[in-house]
Amino acid sequence: MQNAMGSDIIMQLDDVVSSTTPDPIRVEDAMLRSLRWLDRCIAAHKRPRDQALFGIVQGGLDPRMRQVCLREIKKRPLPGFAIGGVSGGEAKEDFWKTVELVSVGLPENKPRYLMGVGYPLDIVVCVALGCDMFDCVYPCRTARFGTALVREQGGVLRIKQTKYKLDLRPLDATCGCYTCRNYTRAFLHASFGKMPSVSQLLTIHNLFFMQSLCLDMQRAIAAGTFPAFVRSFLLQLFPPADRDRAEKRGGKAEATGEKSDGGCEQPSLEEHKSKGQRGLKAEAKPRECGTASPFHGANGECRNLSTPPSWVRDALRAAGIGIDDLYPAPEKD
Questions:
Q1: pLDDT at 240
Q2: Shortest CA distance to 81 belongs to which of 62, 96, 66, 65?
């Protein structure tokens, strides 16, 4: 079927097991089965000259199984490789460590495709860990729920919030997409839910945002300034200077029912339940801000948007990018 479709890149058939499965035998069986299926895909591939068949590294969160799959898959004559079986609800510490383990073990001269990852923060961190390509429905699906991706505190803008009723600014003043050049936040707020085209306008913006983000990373890598780009990106999403102001306004926000500048702008619970990115747990019960997002804990509690999550600090440190001077590590008791 993929040969008939003519895709530039095609994927092997693999046996995908949830990253949170407690059965190691099932995970190992799936990994070995995926290797056997890869051999059958290679044998059946009819257009190797104009279609790149990627193999998929499986093995769950078990480093040993991942290493076995890595060793075997590199024996095959493949033009590229994918990392599968993550972003399925596992802890972020397990997520980034698995990505790093596989990424550093793959050939440097061939593309590395991380499957099912779409949050901008996750993508930036995983590029630092060595990944090149990504796919996810998140930018499009989150747009249908009225959420725009932005490079400012929190990383998202929920256009349904009443504070945008009279806001004549574009979604993102730094964005050059069709939506930001032609429509205001006030128009999008007033029209969302009434005009189906608003979801399309938000989708246009989010896709442009992701393309711009990836292009900026490409340019930074080519210029040798990627660590500086990562630090700048984090300062946009987690501005430390806003911490005191957010704390001072916290009481007012609680009294009026509005969120302060340091409040949460993350996707709604309805969007959370729709699983806009693989791994969002519909059964999670949000607290405080009533939302669920990559900036929230496992139970939905609102995290401090003035400091990146600890897993980001750990992953970037492993990639050789320090941020301790930007965000001092919390003191240990």
A1: 87
A2: 66
